[in-house]
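quick one, two chains, predict together pls
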Amino acid sequence: MIVANPKPISEILDMIKDLKKILILGCKGCVTVCNVGGAKEVGILASTLKIARIKGGNPVDITERTLERQCDPEYIAQVKDIVHDFDGVISMACGVGPQFLSEAYPKQRFFPAVDTTFFGGAVQHGIWAERCAGCGTCIIHYFDGMCPIARCSKSLMNGPCGGSAGGKCEISKDVDCIWDMIVRKKMEQGRLDDLVRFKPSKDWRTARDGGPRRSIREELVI
Amino acid sequence: MSDLRSGSNLEKVLKAGHFAFTGECGPPKGANLEHLKEKFMPLKDIVDAVNITDNQTAVVRMSSWAASTILIQNGLEPNFQMVCRDRNRLAIQSDILGVYAMGVRNMLCLSGDHQSFGNHPQAKNVYDIDSMQLIALVKKMRDEGKFMNDEEIDGPPRLFIGAASNPFADPFEFRVYRLAMKIAAGADFIQTQCIYNMKKFREFMKMAVDMGLHEKCHILAGVTPMKSVGMAQYMAKSVPGMDVPEALIQRLRDAGKGKVAEEGIKFAIEQIEEFKEMEGVAGVHLMAIEWEHRVPEIAERAGMLPRPKI
């Protein structure tokens, strides 16, 4: 899923300081699963903002809604009758949400409530970790299902570098060295030949480096 | 390894069978030419080539290519270091052409320390290619006369290709295979990480010799003299992939006040003496960090002088 972190309240307060009537829009997709932008978090953010604005002598009127998803025009359309009744709209979806909303309603202003971080999953309750860099050409079959592009700090395809120590990355003892895991798995399974094979450089055109990307599935295009 | 690939002094020394001796110079944090000269001039005629570091530890310094050309102007041979952290394949290839045109003949291909170590941790990291791919790229440019995209090069750069090896990083069992990969990718010479754990290094070299790697590539053992107990403790605890045995730290401590630096130099000299006899070791790479002016004395005492003139 797409993982996100809540933005600091002070940053959100600053974005909306001149607005009196606000819509907070949650999303039932990834941000609900990672507990950052679902209906529950919409309620918490609304209360927090209201209290802060009352305290500052500048009360704000807030309406709460949560959409099925904000990455689909069909659901974005569900707010068409109300979206212009507000001075501004805070989206609690990932970075896709405020953009789909802005494209659908060019006259309204939209603000992000979260910092979108990565594609990953929950490794334990309350902790999420990156697993995919969305590079557009998956090569994890060469690395036994582990991705050095997303998980090696240097995206090395022929690792591990000289900074791997005790299974940890040189950048932090909190970061696992993915190359340590790849090497150990292959050596344990007796597949050294596979490991020492030179991996040529990657064609980054399929990644963000090739410019903004589109996926076109002809069979689905109407 | 009879035909010269680059014609560099380092290549000639190694191919003539001499025990090579390379030094290192980190360019200054500024455009202070005098400061740069102060650092590299003590190495003149003392070492066969001088590594010029490339924003080492991810701290911004005078560019390694510019400092390398200044060394050439002053009659020293640089070993131009390039890291993959700061350049994409366009910049990498154009810098390779540029340094070669300016007279550089040795190049050390490195991944580079992650920018989080340095003084611009906010920077975007590039890593378009990795150090293994960089070695293969320099070899392709030299031997095939082609860019990465297979276009012909008008005047291919003929460089003596170096790579690094850290026998002390994990997983230890794989390190010798990674060295073999770098040699297969095109490394002509290897400079190792600073060695302090001699027992582990002997074990590593035995594996390398058993695999015949020393016959395919010149392996230079990395030496950095310890200046203080604090430096030894810092390296032991805070530098990932560095192996400093407690016995060495104790030896420095036992040397007593005012005598630690001398003890550090003594240990370095003992190491060099052992490397001269160690099977598979073709030379020493002395990284006297911010201690370049002590290199002539160390070289003299380690019996590395005079350097061969070829």
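The first strand of chain B starts at residue 20 and ends at 25.
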